[in-house]
Design a protein that fits this description.
This protein is of the alpha/beta class. It has helices at 4-8, 12-21, 43-54, 66-76, 85-91, 104-110, 112-115, 144-151, 166-170, 188-199, 215-232; strands at residues 34-38, 58-63, 81-84, 94-97, 119-122, 127-130, 133-136, 156-159, 179-185, 204-208. The strands form two sheets. An eight-stranded mixed beta sheet has the order 3-2-1-4-5-8-9-10. The chain has a two-stranded antiparallel ribbon with strand order 6-7. Helix 3 (43-54) links the parallel strand 1 and strand 2 (58-63). The termini are far apart. 42% of the residues are buried.
Length: 243
């Protein structure tokens, strides 16, 4: 027998349909979130830290060496702080993974506890280079993002910010970064947060691009952008049309 409460309770299918009816551009306020950047002393990490701090986010740069993180933070200014990786992860609401691919798995495995419960944004691109140029690598798990999800079972792993030029991100003369950011993840609430963070940077827009199983082709596309940038002496990004 169905109780009145059960009859009136929305089931999973009803909730899913309701979510689909939501305006996809109705994004949450993320201005109060603390953003940590692991690998924040590298070019991509420094660029993202600079842009988010300039947009008004509280930013903490993480590094294996606290002194190195502090030096990078002082150079960037804007109230950015530097810390050892574990402290950066503990103090941040959102943690961007911008470490070199070679140290990706080792870094995340060591921070499993500190990253538990955190929103993690992986922007690492597994690439190789030879005399023909850049080419994509395919991790055993399928992608860097899927490796992160496997190593961080208690974190909320998403993937984004793969296709941004570190040169443009770090250039204070560039007021806007005119590009779209492809955002992947398993939870709409989490991908909405990442899209909202992307929108904090002038000229940038976050666009949902599927679940983490689709991350490999997004990460791999960076090899094509590198080839285009070399040929045309550019800092190419992406724009997605008709959305």
């Amino acid at each position: 027998m169905t109780t009145p409460d059960a009859a009136s309770s929305p089931n999973a299918a009803t909730r899913a349909k309701a979510a689909l009816k939501r305006d996809p551009w109705d994004l949450p306020d993320v201005s109060g979130l603390v953003v940590g950047v692991l690998g924040g002393t590298g070019d991509q990490g420094r660029g993202l830290a600079y842009r988010f701090a300039k947009a008004g986010q509280k930013v903490i740069i993480g590094s294996r060496a606290a002194e190195r993180a502090g030096t990078a933070a002082d150079e960037l200014g804007l109230g950015i702080e530097g810390a050892e990786n574990a402290e950066c992860a503990r103090r941040s609401d959102v943690v961007i993974i911008a470490v070199p691919w070679e140290g990706h798995g080792r870094t995340l495995e060591a921070l499993r506890g500190e990253l538990a419960g955190k929103l993690v944004i992986d922007c690492v691109n597994p690439l190789g280079f030879d005399k023909k140029g850049a080419y994509a690598l395919k991790p055993e798990e399928g992608s860097a993002a899927e490796q992160a999800a496997a190593l961080l079972p208690d974190a909320r792993v998403t993937a984004a910010f793969h296709h941004l030029s570190a040169v443009l991100l770090q250039d204070p003369a560039v007021e806007q970064i005119d590009t779209d950011v492809m955002v992947l993840g398993e939870s709409r609430a989490d991908t909405d947060l990442v899209q909202a963070l992307a929108a904090r940077i002038p000229g940038m827009r976050g666009v949902y691009a599927g679940r983490l199983r689709n991350a490999h082709q997004v990460e791999s596309l960076v090899a094509n952008l590198i080839s285009a940038n070399v040929r045309y002496k550019a800092h190419a990004g992406l724009r997605i049309t008709d959305v």
